[in-house]
Amino acid sequence: MPKFRPRSHALHLVLLTALLAGIATTTLAATTIRAQTLDGEPVRLDDYFARGRWTLVVVWTTYCPVCAGEFDTLARLQAAHAASELEVLGVAIDGVAARGTVAGTLAERHARFESLVGEPTEIAAGFERLTGTPFLGTPTYLLFDGDGELAARKNGPLDRAELERFLTRHHP
Q1: What are the DSSP calls for 66-102, one per residue?
Q2: What share of the chain is helix, strand, coil (3-state, %, to 5)?
């Protein structure tokens, strides 16, 4: 099978530009994921990214028993890394009409991380634009590095030790 080789420097630049545009589109996809604060203010997911800090986004619902079981782990994880390199941000996909229910669940579970609320179809579409894969359900985790780049994703329960190892290997 013949190897693909650009025939000219100009063609090589066009291909490189297209490749970089695809990367930039993936990077910028987080800016298109829209949600609301619990007070009803419209926000974008990347509004919560702090330069130089990892952001772990957990997509959850009030009726997900696995999600509810993760709240303590997330609180401990954020407390262990709050002074250094990690923020936890929740995105409840119960729909913006359920902001009160989401706030009640957070209070009942003593959640110590900020959470937003979004429409399930919009968050799922944003996830697909960002990852190129379909959204499978809750909980789903997205880990963004200190530059706002998607570094990892996981569907299902969080393995704190696995996340700790990942952060240790990839943190400067």
Answers
A1: HHHHHHHHHHHHHHHHTTTTEEEEEEE-S-GGGHHHH
A2: 45, 20, 35
The pTM assigned to this predicted structure is: 0.81
CA distances from 50 to 70, 79, 82 (A): 23, 17, 12
- 3-state SS class at 114: strand
Indicate if the pLDDT at residue 29 is higher than 70: no
Assign residue 145 the CATH number of its domain.
3.40.30.10
- Torsion angle of C-alpha atoms 79, 81, 82, 83, degrees rounded to 10: 130
Q: Provide the number of structural domains found in the chain.
A: 1
Q: Which domain holds residue 97?
A: 28-170
- Would you say residue 102 lies in a domain? yes
d(CA 172, CA 162): 18
The whole-angstrom separation of Cα 158 and Cα 139 is 8
Residue 3 lies in a domain: no
Distance (Å, whole) CA 26 – CA 129: 7
Alpha-carbon span 40 to 165, nearest angstrom: 36
Residue 9: closest CA among 30, 17, 91 = 17
The rounded mean pLDDT for the chain is 82
